[in-house]
Amino acid sequence: MTWRLFEKVRKLFPPLRSSRHRGLLLLAATLFSLPTSFAFAQGPSAVPDIFNTVSTPADAIRRLSFFVLVITGLIFVVVFSLLVYAVIRFRHHSTGDDREPPQVYGSNQMELAWTVVPVLIVLVLFFATARVIQSVQDAIPPANTLNVTAIGHQFWWEFRYPALGIVTANELHVPVSDRAHPTPTFVKLLSADTDHSFWVPQLAGKTDLIPNRINSIWIDPHATGMYLGQCAQYCGTQHAKMLLRVYVDSPEQFGAWVAAQKQSAHAPDSVAAGRQIFETTACINCHAVSGTVANGRFGPDLTHLMSRDTIASGAASNTHENLKLWIHDPEAIKPGSFMPAMNLSAHDLEAVTAYLESLK
Amino acid sequence: MSTAVISHEPIDSQWSLPYKGHVGMLCLIVAESAIFTIFVVAYLFYIGKSLSGPTPRQVLELPIFASICLLSSSLTIHVAVAALRKANFGAFRLWWFLTLVLGSIFLVSTAREWRHLIYDKGLTITTNLFGTTYYSLVGLHAFHVTVGLIGLLTILLLTLFRRVQQEHAKNVDTFAMYWHFVDVVWIVVFTVVYIIGR
Amino acid sequence: MSSETIALAGVHEPSRPVGVLLHSWVTTVDHKRLGILYILYAILFLVIGGIEATVMRIQLIVPHNHFVSPQVFNQMFTMHGTTMIFFVAMPILFGFGNFLIPLMIGARDMAFPRLNAFSFWLTAFGGILLYFSFVGGYGLYGVGAAPDVGWFAYAPLTAKTFSLGHSTDFWTFSLLVSGFGSIGAAVNFVATILCLRCPGMTLSKMPLLAWLNLVMGGLVLLVISPLTAAQVMLALDRFLGAHFFDTQAGGSAVLWMHFFWIFGHPEVYVLVIPGFAFASEIIPVFSRKPIFGYPIMVGATVAIGFVSMSVWAHHMFTVGMSSYGNTFFALTTMVIAIPTGIKIFNWLGTMWGGRLIFKTPMLFCIGFLFQFLIAGLTGIMLSAAPFNWQLSASYFVVAHFHYVIVGAILFTIFAAFYYWFPKMSGRLYNEKLGKLHFWLFVIGFHLTFDFMHIPGLLGMPRRIYTYEPGRGWEIWNLIVTIGVVFQAVAILIFVGNLLYSMFKGVPAGNDPWDAWTLEWSTSSPPPEYNFAMIPVVNSRRPLWDIKHPEDPDWQYE
């Protein structure tokens, strides 16, 4: 019976008329064969490529996605070849006779066949998918998990380490995780205002931060370095510059970072003037510096501002000029953000900047 | 000069399709049911989730009398349409008028209930989630009752001016479908708000 | 079976003053004129929406560009999406349906002509209200008050706290108004198809276009209402202080998403099913064979209609639903690929063994088949929820849905234009220009939307007015923007071709394509009463039966 079916199918494909037609078919097949270059280097990269993964959730997604791509690629090749064949083989040639071709209304066997095969494909895809959903979403945090709380704001990230008593912003530090003895980081996702989304492609799929809702995401990066991401749910004017960095530190680096972050601010006397201005203007309405009177929570915590590589949630690098510009004219860096222009005199601006630069 | 070549057979007297008025009204009812479903889902979802303020149990009283009036009006409108089909215009006018009265009683009762809730119990649409979902769902229904009453009144006036004839029974029946729909929705709203929600 | 030739006197209308002519068009209840009004309205907004897209693409051609401010950019993507869905795609499909359905089922007009006119004008007014937002109302930073919350307007960004002024209200009310117009049109479609078919045309002898518009009409009735409900709730929140989506009072942002996507997902089937209808009428005629597997095509479409109401949360895989929720919606989304994919095989089966004629409508249909295949496959990728966790809200998704809406739906709409233009206007379009439009548009489309998948895979989110250099996104954004030029030129050629041919084209006659459905039996353009006598049919291809009396369809169906 299989042979008869095979014969039936073979007869559906009348031979191509000429070598020109065959050549066309070969060319089409070559042009549209799938590109097969995938990134094989797995480590931190300036390009946040979803296939260059270093953490279990992202790895699992990558493997599933390759499986899906292979299946969809095969489907594409088959159907596309049939389409190209049909277009070439059954083209009307004006020299031919004008009779209408055989009027075929349908075929129950064919329709059954091309229903059953997709059903089987869907079943296979579904089970592969369900397994990964469960393994990523229902993972149980081990005892040595680092817990971080991320709070999304318009347009910056607040990170709190409850067990360590640390509050920082925009640049998340996590310890590297050994494959044999994993030390993952579980991030609880909250929002102070609208919807946001935490997306660092090399580490995990994205998960949204939704007000009045607690979501969570976990990562266990096994290569140190800096990983780029950004907010992936439109949250207002400066959604585009709500950038995100995750620094995966070696155990020593991480320990040192934690120790530094735990300390209160120590401002030397040389910046006392700037500190005075900072603490007596509107700065402290929004910003906090631990160990001082400043404990505003609307904007990022500045206690260890100089330990960060960027300001304004990644919109500018953390340099003297950019700091001054950010305080003086934030619209130049991030138009529509909620940092107000502070309208300080040139002298006061220098003093405040100097104070901020002492917050290491 | 253009020509059309068509096939011309004697019209098959068996060829009859549904009455477009009924089909159109059914389509409208489907769409309206979908709107009500969403408001009901919102109501059910927010049961027990208010952060403050009066709860349903504290402030809601069962509107039994109003419900009986509204549901009876389905009966009276049915009788009215049947009378019109038999060209019994006197009966039609009477039962149609009764339908209008019963529907109005329902609406007035809802208004009084709201007045009581707002002024005596302090529940408004802004008070809490219960207030939001209660006023919107019951209000959406009351809005549909109002539209229905306007339709009932219009047809009553047309009847009084002798414009409604026996052959209009189909059209009046189409309108009656809307009124029945409003009643069925009330059964759902009553169950959700006054029984499940309390 | 007897047949007669009835001569219709050529109707020469004396030229009327412009005012009278305009008045007749504004007050018309004729389905053909309303259909054309819908289509012209949609073309106008297609050009406007295209300009909005072009502005965005110019802004994104290089990183850190300063072509427009972030405020303007955010208005652009909101207006572009809202315009294209509600004031281009839906009106144009209602327009074609309005023009064609009565003609194809042998009726004189739609079931409710005045409701038909009312629905059109509601839709039209909705669009005007939306665009009034650019000039009216309180605006931020002096750029007017056009909505900037995205076309799906997620809560709580749309709350009064986060969306100052009235921009969101313009979005809400314009769509509420045009939503009522859509419901009115759908009521008309369903009632007409069920109640006004000519004698002999049972449901199983109806053209596929009628069946598919029936399913589309039913879907519209079911799914526009959830959007209406959600928008009423949003308006209550914004104006009366209700708390439906007020997260500070215990409200749920996710509830908005559920309500919106219960509308939003079936909406894309509302858009694509009439596109399928066009392909199902055009491909058979240019393959010189009947559609392969008519009953399955009907069954698959009805199945799509039902299943489409169960897949909506695949737009919400990243909001933190439980693994059970995500698994369920992944399953339903994969399942809906089955009836959809089957249809591609049926169209292929129609072409197989036929005699393919590559006129412009057929070229666009072949493009549709190729692109719909790819769009469906990227859809399958997105249905695998974990893969979706990477791809959602990125340019991969933007590329996927434009592949469906432009590559599939718009291509079938172009095919429909070229196929039925002779019927609507009485003249043939210029075939060479039509082919030029096709090839230019195909090149532009693929430059833009093929390469748009790549930045998504490299981590570029959507709805960003600029992006950081050095992430590997620059080259792809450049290529994507270049493709826009080809598409814009192609559209200009298309519009020019239609305008020119309307006045100077060769007269088309009743049946320039040697087709088989009833609209080709009457004159081009049809008289106001459509048919001199209501036809009686015996098969799905009444004109085939007449042209081939020795081998009529009803012997085989």
Explain this structure.
The complex is a heterotrimer of chains A (360), B (198) and C (557). Chain A is of the alpha+beta class. Chain A has helices at residues 2-11, 19-31, 56-89, 108-137, 251-262, 272-280, 283-286, 320-328, 330-333, 346-357; strands spanning 146-153, 156-161, 166-169, 171-175, 185-191, 196-199, 207-209, 215-219, 225-231, 243-249, 310-311, 316-317. Among the domains of chain A are: 2-137, Helix Hairpins, CATH 1.10.287.90; 269-357, Cupredoxins -  blue copper proteins (Immunoglobulin-like). Chain A is elongated, with a radius of gyration of 29 Å. With 198 residues, chain B is mainly alpha-helical. Chain B has six helices and one strand. Chain B has helices spanning 20-45, 56-59, 64-85, 89-120, 129-160, 169-196; one strand at 2-7. Chain C has a single domain (3-7, 31-555), classed as Cytochrome c oxidase-like, subunit I domain (Cytochrome C Oxidase, Chain A, Up-down Bundle). Chain C has 16 helices and one strand. In chain C, helix 5 (167-195) packs antiparallel against helix 6 (208-240), helix 6 packs antiparallel against helix 7 (253-287) and helix 8 (294-307) runs antiparallel to helix 9. The longest helix of chain C is centred in the first third of the chain and has 36 residues, at 70-105. Residues 1-9 of chain C have low confidence and may be disordered. Chains in contact: A-C, B-C. The interface between A and C is large, with 90 and 96 residues.
